[in-house]
Amino acid sequence: MRKYKFKQIEKYIALFKKINEGVFIELNSKTGELKKASDYLSTAQQKAIDMGTYIEEEEGLGHPTVAVLEEFCEILYEINEEILSERGLAANSAKMRLDSIVNKIEKSAQRDIKIKKLVVFLPYKASMWDSLESVWMKYNEDETCEALVIPIPYYDKNPDGSVKEMHYEGKEYPDNVPITSFETFDFAKEHPDEIYIHNPYDDYNYVTSVHPFFYSDNLKKYTDKLVYIPYFVLNEPDLDNKDTMEHIKSFAVTKGVLNADEVIVQSERMKEAYVKCLTEQFGEETRASWEKKIKGTGSPKFDKLTRLKREEQKIPDEWLKILKKEDGTFKKIILYNTGVVAILNQEQKMIDKIKDVLEVFKECKDEVALLWRPHPLIEATLDSMVPEIASQYREIVDRYKKEGWGIFDDTADMDRAIIISDAYYGDGSSMVQLYEKLEKPIMIQNVDVLEKENV
């Protein structure tokens, strides 16, 4: 039985205890009314029948607690008959018998009704699934839980904020992850015990938006506990650096953080940063609530990387043709990562930089394999915010793909790219922190430095 449904069982038991007290008061009072005590007993009997029906609907026929409820009904009948008889019944005797059987009902319910927690995960981009995966795995292995993965739709946005076409990536998740359709799952009826999200922006994302039903302020209506885990990891913050803390604030003061019952961030230091930003925003009197809400227990993204091994990765055959030399050995594999913020800030300079980088790596393609993995939202961001740059960017991508000397990785599996590559080159991003965990070489590109004069 689901936890929220078991609450109804607890309400029945609490009612029985109140009725027992009412019967005692009426029998023990000089002015007490036998008919009122009898009415209490009749009410208890009907509620016992209702509770038994409720349990059988949820747990099936022949449940042990229903048998105890039947015993309860027999005792209620006997006590009622004794009360209305000429001999009557002492208040203490009635209370002792009623309390004893209600306690027996309560113990049976707690022992024999197995509570099963429903935990729902709502990723929207398959490439961000690693930010939730290890938590899902934990619940999925727990026999007392039902863990559902329900990918949700999202939309690109036009420059004016209106939405464009809908995207749904439910078919892009690993084979070991069963998918439940967002169209068939009834949130109001099922009322998950916990819901996990990794999108904190709700309607404040200028590039994409999940469907409004899945905004955090709406999801709170359908669960006892809303948990937010960032889809990214950041550089460990310097709490005394004003610019750093202003940057952290843009992630901390978001609707997902404010609406969640619990927020899980990458480290205790990041928790301190979040708490500091939120306290400064909302007042010192709110500090205790942020301290309680935010947990610095670590990002699931780190958990996944530590489990993976290079030889276990499924590398497409077309990739292997680029990654291997003629003698069958692997080239040095460089992961080239281009981010959203960098291209928005630098625009044409970043376009020129990307062209330059590709020319450099093209010249050494026999010894070094380039695995270019741009941020999945670059094109949508450029279309929405700087469309004049978007066309140039697409030309670069199309040419790179057509020439075929390097890999363009737009798959949902970011971790594969990290595991199989030997070094990182590109913009600062959450991927850098993941590389640091694996102790692989990292070089951040400088947009002002071009190796080629004509790009």
Q: How would the blueprint of this fold be written?
A:
Blueprint: H1 3-28, H2 34-59, H3 64-84, H4 91-112, E1 117-122, H5 133-140, E2 145-149, E3 154-157, E4 163-167, H6 187-190, E5 194-197, E6 208-210, H7 216-219, E7 225-228, H8 242-252, H9 255-259, E8 262-264, H10 268-282, H11 287-293, E9 294-295, H12 300-307, H13 317-323, E10 332-337, H14 340-346, H15 348-363, E11 368-372, H16 378-385, H17 387-403, E12 407-408, H18 414-420, E13 423-426, H19 430-438, E14 442-444
Parallel strand pairs: 1-2, 1-5, 5-7, 7-8, 8-9, 10-11, 10-13, 11-12, 13-14
Antiparallel strand pairs: 3-4, 3-6
Index terms:
Rossmann fold, 3 domains, 455 residues, Four Helix Bundle (Hemerythrin (Met), subunit A), 14 strands, alpha/beta
How much beta, percentage-wise? 5-15%
Total E-strand runs:
14
Which radius of gyration do the C-alpha atoms yield? 31 Å
The overall pLDDT average reads 92
Second CATH tier, the architecture of the largest domain: 3-Layer(aba) Sandwich
Overall CATH class of the largest domain? Alpha Beta
CATH topology of the largest domain: Rossmann fold
| Low-confidence spans | none
Taking the alpha carbons of the first and last residues, their distance comes to: 65 Å
The domain count comes to 3
Tally of alpha and pi helices: 19
User: How would you classify the helix and strand content by structural class?
Assistant: alpha/beta
Query: Strand arrangement, largest sheet?
Result: 2-1-5-7-8-9
Quick one: overall form? elongated
Residue share in helices?
40-55%
Largest sheet: 6 strands, parallel
